[in-house]
């Protein structure tokens, strides 16, 4: 901040009566009478507002008239003890400078209690609300905690590429990236689009995962993690899907599936504890206003050892459950949210890590088990969210990996370099992916993924 | 790392003779005689190798034959004092497990001293070399230091969007993002491509800057920074340009241009000091092998107060310099690298911050000075690199900003939300952009930007 500025958070936490200081921020509300006005001032440093007390006889009517919700002001004043119950201290204004007005007829954030749907339409202004201030501070805290966690363990942050010419990961539909003219692109002799004339000399897309490149890093540097944007061009209009989202993908040489599970559990508990310890105010606000079970759920994750069991065993439990499933259960099916939540919330009453899924429903790079049917996959299942992490031990055997790739018809040109890591100094290794916005749904208790990212991209929506 | 593993860095720093431990890593070289073999083992944790001493009589010939450069092994052994000068301790092998071979006929990283050009062609393997190990560890260190710096000052990390429907920033050519069929896209009645049928219902591109969205964040949360990928579709085949690169863009409410300069100088010194304090080995390696003036240059930046002067004054100095410029100098021209480096390296012998550039050569959002000719821009100029940071105080006055936007013909549909921030609670504010790979060129001393990012994207190149 500016040298002459004190943040509202610092005033509220450490301001002492008699102190003279300067605050700057946005007016959340103004009330009062003919003698005194009370301005609730927020500068984004904390969810709480600073109460600025104004002796109206000292200021011009014109100035006071313009101090409306949304206006930006600078206040020089004295810290005084607050007679109210709401706060320890308040600021007695000595000088007020109006930095920016906000016409009450035009400013959309007048009253409290706007719907989340309405706020999505004005996503460019919603960071000025209590709810989105809290969410964005939590988003920062979780980002920082992720870097801190991995850095403290000797992992390196690896920037994997966003634009890719490979679609081998197969995790979903991709966006094409191009500079060819959209109308009449150059064509080859047989009349097809001539990608050789595109910017990169071939067809390129936005990545769906940094994992394969992450493995290259791990097989050189030991332990790495990615934390970057990822894209899916699926026409999914659900509260759980975004076309552009952020992923964390650690990859670790020498880890087997058990080391992998240990790391995932440790990380999720670290992040949950970090939020509880560093973002108490914001969590309390979200708990009180949006999800009364939020704090309870965070403690639930923190205080239980995660159950670890095989997919086959889980199917047995689900088959014996006295329950009508929307999606019927039998060995071989992919689990749905209703199954995952049943295991966590009703059967075990603990977070669950499921392992050893059928090979058929998992990706080509997962380590094949001896049974010939299952792979060393792991999914971490959470209350309310369902799957929050998906990962596996990776297939490190060249021959097995090559057979799988051939069986699936994945073109060699897309994966020769990935295969090469199994030819040159291969090692057992593992990794997983955490969708950052899924984590944010869990940490904030919000129900719609569009509300935990600043500017959501979904089918038909790319504003601001 | 695995619970039973010790990292090479830890052995070299803290291993004590008599200790039994397990290391895992890749063979950098093997030499020896009929009685004893010496394996140089690296696991990515540090640039130094651990010397593994092998009594060849204890192991099978077949095993020893397969321990070649690039192979991956696990060694259980005892730490012993090293009789050699190169290292304090070494590891006497008791058990060796071969995890992955690397056929000497096929493995491309046999001998030392490959050219950087060759290594670019095998970018998927180059993290296994000393040079790229050092660069990637430094890249991690700088990323972490950036988060640490901003977090410690109360900034929030804001994830601005990558896919955008606006091209208002105007910083460069853009990549189109689409899911329309490339061959015969749907058309409107007048025969043009019908973008309404594209994924987002309009034409979309990859962002060239997160600044405008960053300002939205700053005008709600106070101080924010972005750190994410950015794209330019320019056909620039130079050692300084990438099509995909990472940018750091802080935006701060209430900062004027002087606060902005203070922050930029403090940040660059913080990062430089962090590298010197945390990455001594890697910097020494790069200094000795690639750029003998690297360490000197880092200290140069750390130990000098940055000179601050106006563009107009700088033009005067350049005009009076007894020098033939490739690009002639007069008031109004954009400075070239030769001019920037002259000011830093020959005239002032200090880093330089130039301010108050002609409005004509700078972007629309910069604060207009009273003189009607210049804007409150700032560029930070460094030795060897030239411009490392570009920033400005932002125009916070609605009327002035609107006139400029109209004069430049920027469509209102692209910027109405940006303009709105000047209608609703505007505030003086500033920000800047730091190209992360430019920073990495400075910190590593490397000469080509393709060598400071794991997987470079340039015209015609999108591999791995």
From TrEMBL, chains A, B:
Residues 136-454 form the Aminoacyl-transfer RNA synthetases class-II family profile domain. GO terms for cellular component: cytoplasm. InterPro entries: Aa-tRNA-synt_II, aa-tRNA-synth_II, aa-tRNA-synth_II/BPL/LPL, Asn-tRNA-ligase, Asp/Asn-tRNA-synth_IIb, NA-bd_OB-fold, NA-bd_OB_tRNA. HAMAP family: Asn_tRNA_synth (MF_00534). This is Asparagine--tRNA ligase. It comes from Candidatus [Bacteroides] periocalifornicus. Its EC number is 6.1.1.22. It catalyses: tRNA(Asn) + L-asparagine + ATP = L-asparaginyl-tRNA(Asn) + AMP + diphosphate + H(+).
């Amino acid at each position: 901040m500016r040298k002459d500025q004190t943040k509202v958070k610092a005033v509220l936490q450490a301001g002492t009566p008699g102190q003279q200081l300067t605050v700057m921020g946005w007016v959340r509300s103004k009330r009062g009478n003919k003698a005194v006005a009370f301005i609730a001032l927020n500068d984004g440093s904390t969810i709480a507002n600073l109460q600025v007390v104004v002796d109206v006889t000292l200021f011009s009517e014109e100035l006071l008239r313009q101090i409306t919700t949304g206006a930006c002001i600078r206040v020089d004043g004295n810290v005084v003890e607050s007679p109210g119950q709401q706060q320890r201290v308040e600021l007695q204004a000595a000088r007020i400078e109006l930095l920016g007005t906000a016409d009450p007829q035009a400013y959309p954030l007048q009253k409290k209690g706007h719907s989340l749907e309405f706020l999505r339409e004005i996503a460019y202004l919603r960071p000025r609300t209590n709810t989105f201030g809290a969410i964005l501070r939590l988003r920062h805290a979780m980002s920082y905690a992720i870097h801190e966690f991995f850095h403290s363990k000797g992992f390196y942050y690896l920037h994997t590429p966003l634009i890719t010419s490979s679609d081998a990961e197969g995790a979903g539909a991709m966006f094409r990236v191009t500079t060819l003219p959209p109308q009449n692109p150059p064509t080859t002799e047989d009349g097809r689009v001539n990608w050789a004339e595109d910017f990169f000399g071939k067809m390129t897309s936005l990545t769906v995962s940094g994992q394969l490149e992450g493995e290259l890093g791990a097989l050189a540097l030991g332990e790495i993690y990615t934390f970057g944007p990822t894209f899916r061009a699926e026409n999914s209009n659900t509260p759980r899907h975004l076309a552009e989202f952020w992923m964390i993908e650690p990859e670790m040489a020498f880890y087997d599936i058990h080391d992998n599970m240990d790391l995932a559990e440790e990380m999720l508990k670290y992040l949950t504890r970090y939020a509880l310890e560093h973002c108490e105010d914001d969590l309390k606000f979200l708990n009180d206003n949006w999800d009364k079970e939020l704090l309870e759920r965070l403690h639930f994750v923190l205080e239980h050892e995660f159950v670890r069991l095989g997919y086959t065993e889980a199917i047995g439990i689900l088959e014996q459950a006295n329950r009508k499933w929307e999606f019927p259960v039998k060995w071989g099916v992919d689990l749905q949210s209703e199954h995952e939540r049943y295991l966590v919330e009703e059967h075990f009453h603990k977070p669950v890590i499921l392992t050893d899924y059928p090979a058929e429903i998992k990706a080509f790079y997962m380590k094949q088990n001896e049974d010939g049917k299952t792979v060393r996959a792991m999914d971490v299942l959470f209350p309310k969210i369902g799957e929050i992490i998906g990962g596996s031990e990776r297939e490190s055997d060249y021959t097995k990996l090559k057979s799988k790739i051939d069986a699936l018809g994945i073109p060699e040109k897309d994966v020769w370099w990935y295969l090469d890591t199994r030819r040159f100094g291969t090692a057992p290794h593992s990794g997983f992916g955490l969708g950052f916005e899924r984590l944010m749904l869990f940490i904030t208790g919000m129900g719609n993924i569009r509300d935990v990212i600043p500017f959501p991209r979904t089918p038909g929506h790319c504003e601001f």
